[in-house]
Amino acid sequence: MTVSTKLIDYKDVDGTIFEGVVYIPEIAKNSKVPAVLVFPAFRGITEFEKDKGHQLAELGYFAFVADVYGKGVRPTERADAFATMGPLVSNRFDKLKPRLFAAIDSLKTFSEVDQSKVAAIGYCFGGLCVLDLARYNSGIKAVVSFHGTLKPIPDLSLDKITETTVLVHHGDADFHIGKDQIDGFHEEMRTREADFVFVSHAKAVHAFTEPDADSFNAPGIGYNEKAAKRSWRSCLNLLTEVFI
Description:
Elements: E1 3-11, E2 17-25, E3 33-39, H1 47-58, E4 62-65, H2 78-90, H3 92-107, E5 113-123, H4 125-135, E6 142-146, E7 165-171, H5 179-191, E8 195-201, H6 225-242
Helix pairs in contact: 3-4
């Protein structure tokens, strides 16, 4: 399917400017289509997330690769990336939440989007982002986290998650996401009476979906082709389910 690509600027409530990338399938010229937000890993928007956006658009979805760091903020070194991400993770309610909702608000300005059919997927830091959208009952149909952080939002009341199906793909050998996080996440989802699925992929470590993860040369981080393909198929199956 033919796909058109656009860079778009948008703002959050604090006036911070972001630059996202949208992928519009040809079919959207004739009718509104479901939309999927893509939230990047710790480096911000890279070719990996752009490729996922394009793949989704080829399947007929309007894809929006969200920018959480700000226009022009594209760290290339690990230390810079963590320094950029750190303040957002440390204050998820006040600093990160407005940026997440800015992406949703911007997405919904596009006439091609069926606003009743919106989902979000995220990788690593982006996985945390989409799980937070579920926690806030943001009105989207589903979220899919790939090797994302599972920690709850501090001091946020554990209200029922009533609108969003939650799917988590976790690497069973990922020591960056400890057993305490896994157990805590399950307990949180049960308390919230969420519709959730948790998949643990054998032998997969952190960042298992990213083909260039081995080049990071970091302990416990690497690509796992089998887990990457299985988790992606599972994601697409869920999108089909919730967008019926």
